[in-house]
């Protein structure tokens, strides 16, 4: 049952976010094609994306993991960011998104929709935001609750879409 529901999540991402994924790849290609770096920042389980991009079998060109100890003053206007968070309300991701926005450093966000639209969201700050379209777990339990929230799996699917498109762009460059 989980695999069937997960296939539905992948299909939804493919149908509804394919243009956004392509836009994200184009934005990140600006750094990869020039003298810039693609910095990846992710929170909680989304760290899977940072490690896939830098330590995976097929690393993302010009990518580095960014962490809070790295000063933003060392970021250049040729650099780009990919921020991944479970929610568009993630405190740490929002803090970095605000700082990047204030410095006019473009970034792509991958996140589920914000839980509450009150206040600032990652979706609103990002130059490109890929929504994971996840609002609850995929499977019902015996008392009506839902479990099986595949945020990292869905985010990795979106990341690979970005990577494959970015590789195509760079091959043509």
Notes on the protein architecture:
Helix 4 (about 120-125) links the parallel strand 4 and strand 5 (about 130). It contains five helices and seven strands; from the N terminus they run αβαββαβαβββα. The radius of gyration is 16 Å and the shape is globular. The longest helix is centred in the N-terminal third of the chain and has 32 residues, at about 1-35. The strands form two sheets. Strands 2-1-3-4-5 form a five-stranded parallel beta sheet, with helices on both faces. The chain has about 170 residues and is an alpha/beta fold. The mean pLDDT is about 95.
Q: What are the SSEs and their pairings?
A:
Elements: H1 2-33, E1 38-42, H2 47-55, E2 63-65, E3 80-87, H3 91-102, E4 107-112, H4 122-125, E5 128-131, E6 139-140, E7 146-147, H5 151-172
Helix pairs in contact: 1-5, 2-5
Key words describing this protein structure:
173 residues; alpha/beta; five-stranded parallel beta sheet; two-stranded antiparallel ribbon; 5 helices; globular
Brief sketch in words of this structure:
With 173 residues, this protein is of the alpha/beta class. The chain is built from five helices and seven strands.
């Amino acid at each position: 049952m989980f695999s069937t529901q997960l296939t539905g999540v992948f299909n939804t991402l493919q149908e509804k976010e394919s243009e956004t994924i392509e836009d994200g790849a184009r934005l990140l290609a600006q750094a990869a094609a020039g003298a810039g770096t693609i910095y990846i920042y992710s929170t909680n389980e989304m760290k899977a994306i940072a490690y896939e991009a830098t330590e995976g079998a097929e690393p993302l060109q010009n990518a580095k993991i960014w962490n809070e100890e790295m000063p933003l003053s060392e970021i250049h206007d040729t650099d780009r960011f990919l921020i991944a968070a479970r929610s568009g309300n993630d405190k740490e991701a929002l803090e970095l998104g605000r700082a990047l926005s204030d410095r006019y450093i473009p970034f792509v966000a991958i996140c589920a929709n914000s839980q509450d639209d009150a206040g600032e969201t990652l979706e609103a700050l990002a130059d490109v935001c890929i929504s994971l379209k996840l609002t609850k777990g995929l499977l019902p339990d015996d008392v009506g609750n839902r479990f099986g929230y595949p945020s990292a799996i869905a985010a990795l699917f979106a990341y690979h879409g970005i990577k494959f498109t970015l590789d195509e762009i760079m091959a043509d460059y």
